[in-house]
């Protein structure tokens, strides 16, 4: 588990997502401002709908830019067992079923998934139920969370 490589892969994914979102924003903006989309009557809402889409895309671009800034400024910390799991921890969990998950506790971009050496790594934040449950825990700890009214138990196998 190489935390520095995971960190760089997260930044790379955010950069790629930002480029896609900026392209979608440009397309939506052009549709919203195109002369053919000017309303001819009160029932002609194509231009208005394109404007809403452009606004949503602009918000998405801003969110990705914010996450990218947070990750570029992020200082990776080595795991300290006396403090337990904290921001920037790379955590391997084992579910009751025996399946394993790899999580990176980051400042933003919750739900972002990357693949490193064939293994999926999901970004979570301290604000998520899983992130809150993991804070302060160490290797060997059991973590219980409720997801959709179902209790799930995980064991912390490894922390970097």
UniProtKB/TrEMBL annotation:
Keywords: Elongation factor, Protein biosynthesis
InterPro entries recorded: GreA/GreB_C_sf
One example of a Gene Ontology biological process annotation: regulation of DNA-templated transcription elongation
Listed GO MF terms: DNA binding; translation elongation factor activity
Name of protein: Transcription elongation factor GreAB
Organism: Pseudomonas cavernicola
């Amino acid at each position: 588990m190489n935390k520095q490589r995971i960190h760089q892969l997260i930044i790379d994914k955010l950069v790629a997502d930002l480029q896609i979102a900026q392209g979608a924003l440009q397309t939506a903006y052009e549709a919203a401002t195109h002369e053919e989309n000017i309303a001819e009557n009160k029932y002609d809402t194509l231009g208005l709908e394109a404007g809403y889409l452009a606004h949503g895309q602009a918000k998405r671009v801003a969110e990705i830019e914010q996450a990218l800034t947070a990750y570029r400024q992020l200082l990776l910390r080595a795991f300290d067992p006396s403090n337990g799991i904290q921001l920037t921890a790379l955590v391997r969990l084992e579910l009751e079923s025996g399946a394993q998950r790899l999580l990176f506790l980051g400042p933003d971009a919750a739900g972002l998934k990357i693949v490193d050496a064939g293994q999926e790594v999901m970004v979570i934040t301290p604000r998520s139920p899983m992130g809150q449950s993991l804070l302060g825990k160490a290797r060997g700890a059991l973590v219980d969370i409720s997801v959709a009214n179902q209790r799930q138990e995980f064991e912390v196998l490894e922390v970097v």
